[in-house]
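Blinded run. Sample ID left blank on purpose so nobody reads anything into the name before looking at the predicted structure. Input follows.
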Amino acid sequence: MSDRKRARFETQVRRKVSIKESFHQRQADSSVRYEIAITVEEAELGVKKILSRHGKKLELNIPAGVATGKTVRLNNALQVTDGHSGDILVKIKVKEGKMTKGVIEINDSNFEDEVIKHDLPVMVDFWAPWCGPCRMLSPVTEKLAEEYAGRLKCCKMNVDENHQMAAKYRVLSIPQVFFFKGGEVVEESTGAVPESMLRSKVETVLQQQ
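Blinded prediction complete.
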């Protein structure tokens, strides 16, 4: 190999190494941000929460005396959930009063306050008591409501009793699940879909900025 070719080859190798190192550095410096709401009592006493990402569960220890705006860091948690280095940063929001767990029944009259104006992402399950697939999906939404409490509000609306919202969102087949964020529909699902599919949509919504 001539000196000129050797020099060119070595330059290309150094460039590739540099690019690879830069890529790994960006991965190492990456982080993902979440926000979680807790009660005043939980903030005073400290609490453990389960954080889910890509089907992986992480334990989040929130220390006693935490205040709104405080960030709890899960060091290198992305290695577990995403397969590469990076932290998960969880911003704490302390809410006054008792937070409701589980799926909440809502109606046409309180839809705006419970869904559109709510500061957390909201999952709304449009259903009816006579609907077999709705009953099949119900345990899934209840499970997700418990698991994502404080990060996702879960509601259900009986379409037989609440025609206004069902018509507004063109609910033609049930169960139909809408995900709201900032008052807007950002995801939806129709039918008795598997838990994994609905969970994936929850994760997508929570990761959206």
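Unblinding after everyone has recorded impressions. The chain has two domains: 29-95, 104-207.
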